[in-house]
């Protein structure tokens, strides 16, 4: 057992950290950490994508390579692209609770400005959802 300053260092620094903690250390998004794993620049020691565990020392060794300043304040945690898409798809799944009659009733009661705003939003959503379907088709066509 260690005592003194060395003991404090051991207690405050975990041997393994998760993807989110590694992203914070390197000032990257969790998706960027997963890219480092795919490129072979960071080895996970447990967990499954996207929730890997890494040796703290391995992540710390990347700090100079990633040009991360240890004096720099950590950026606010930003949701990864994967998380943002998943949150949006989860929210959009609630459309199944709305009937065609509900939509017609709403449209009949909405004023012109609200209908125009809804048209813009629905058009943008339709375009993004078409991209989601295309991306899913591309990934699935590559799977064995």
Q: In this structure, how is the largest beta sheet organized? A: 3 strands, antiparallel
Q: Please report the total strand number as a whole number.
A: 3
Strand content: 5-15%
What fold name goes in the CATH topology slot of the largest domain? Multidrug-efflux Transporter Regulator, Chain: A, Domain 2
CATH class of the largest domain: Mainly Alpha
Q: Whole-number average pLDDT? A: 82
- Anisotropy-based shape: elongated
Radius of gyration: 23 Å
- SSE run: HEHHEEHHHH
Strand order of the largest sheet: 1-3-2
Terminal CA distance reads 51 Å
Counted up, domains total 2
What is the CATH architecture term of the largest domain?
A: Orthogonal Bundle
Structural class: mainly alpha
Specify the helix fraction band.
55-70%
Number of alpha- plus pi-helical segments: 7
Which runs of at least 5 residues are low in confidence (pLDDT < 50)? 1-10
Description:
By secondary structure, the chain is mainly alpha-helical. Helix content is 61%, strand content 7%. The protein has helices at 5-12, 19-26, 30-38, 56-65, 81-92, 100-109, 112-142, and strands spanning 16-18, 47-48, 51-55. The protein has a 3-stranded antiparallel β-sheet with strand order 1-3-2. Helix 2 packs across helix 3 (30-38). Residues 1-10 have low confidence and may be disordered.
């Amino acid at each position: 057992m260690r005592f003194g300053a060395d003991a404090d260092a051991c207690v405050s620094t975990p041997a393994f950290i998760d993807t989110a903690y590694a992203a914070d250390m390197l000032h990257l998004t969790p998706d960027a950490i997963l890219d480092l794993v795919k490129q072979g620049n960071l080895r996970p020691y447990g967990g499954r994508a996207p929730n890997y565990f890494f040796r703290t020392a391995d992540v710390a060794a990347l700090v100079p390579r990633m040009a991360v300043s240890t004096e720099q304040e950590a950026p606010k945690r930003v949701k990864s692209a994967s998380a943002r898409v998943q949150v949006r798809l989860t929210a959009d799944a609630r459309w199944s609770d709305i009937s065609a009659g509900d939509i017609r009733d709403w449209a009949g009661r909405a004023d012109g400005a609200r209908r125009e705003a809804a048209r813009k939003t629905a058009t943008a959503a339709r375009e993004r959802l078409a991209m989601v379907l295309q991306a899913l088709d591309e990934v699935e066509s590559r799977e064995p």
